[in-house]
Amino acid sequence: MIENEFKVMLTEEQYESLLKLYDFKTIVQTNHYFDTDDLQMSERHITVRVRELDGKFYLQMKLPTSVNYSRVELSQELRVLPETLSGEELQKLSGEECPDVKRLGALTTTRGIWKFNGGEVDVDKSEYFGKTDYELEIEFSDENAARAVFAEISQKLGISSGAGVCVGKIRRFLEEFKKNKIS
């Protein structure tokens, strides 16, 4: 599946205001991120995670595409949360040659979801390594509808028209991982 999304970081105040604008359904999910000690997958712009949601585990890989706001997303259900994943298992899922990877840590997100015709607004509060941040994601199949919803939200929250794509969760997680020298 190709994932198309716009993302922008929010302040805590913008996050709280946005939650009041629409009728959001709330879920809590935890992403357990995996990589090598020297972050080979990250350097290739490949995300490997196991998403924990409602007591189930999903191995997910995100691979780059030629479009800035799009990535290929692959997924398969797992029975348990592993501490390591073999390169062979990752290659079966993605078709990409991959090294063995280990679990680096987790990022837990409280997500508000509001669907519109052509997409979905996700407003996230993410917690990892003692840090909390807030993010707006608009995932879409209809780019024009998504741009209209983003413009409406931006106007209501005072998000600058120059706001662009923010650094994704995996990059923010890895930045904190490196700062904390977690091994």
In short:
This protein has helices at residues 12-21, 40-43, 87-94, 143-157, 169-180, and strands at 2-10, 25-35, 47-53, 56-64, 70-78, 84-85, 101-116, 119-128, 131-140. With 183 residues, the protein is α+β, with helices and mostly antiparallel strands.
Structural class: alpha+beta
Question: Would you count the extended β strands for me?
Answer: 9
Kindly report how far apart the N and C termini lie: 32 Å
Mean pLDDT over all positions: 91
Percent range of helical residues: 25-40%
Number of helices: 5
What is the radius of gyration?
Answer: 17 Å
Helix-strand string? EHEHEEEEHEEEHH
Question: How do the strands line up in the largest sheet?
Answer: 1-5-4-3-2-7-8-9
**CATH-defined fold name:** Hypothetical Protein Pfu-838710-001
Q: What about the largest sheet?
A: 8 strands, antiparallel, barrel
Topology (SSEs and partners):
Elements: E1 2-10, H1 12-21, E2 25-35, H2 40-43, E3 47-53, E4 56-64, E5 70-78, E6 84-85, H3 87-94, E7 101-116, E8 119-128, E9 131-140, H4 143-157, H5 169-180
Antiparallel strand pairs: 1-5, 1-9, 2-3, 2-7, 3-4, 4-5, 6-7, 7-8, 8-9
Account of the 3D structure:
The chain is an alpha+beta fold and 183 residues long. The chain has a single domain (2-180), classed as Hypothetical Protein Pfu-838710-001. The chain contains five helices and nine strands, in the order E-H-E-H-E-E-E-E-H-E-E-E-H-H. It has helices spanning 12-21, 40-43, 87-94, 143-157, 169-180; strands at 2-10, 25-35, 47-53, 56-64, 70-78, 84-85, 101-116, 119-128, 131-140. Strands 1-5-4-3-2-7-8-9 form an eight-stranded antiparallel beta barrel, surrounded by four helices. A hairpin with a 2-residue loop joins strand 8 (119-128) and strand 9 (131-140). The longest helix has 15 residues, at 143-157. The chain is globular, with a radius of gyration of 17 Å. The model has no long low-confidence stretch (mean pLDDT 91).
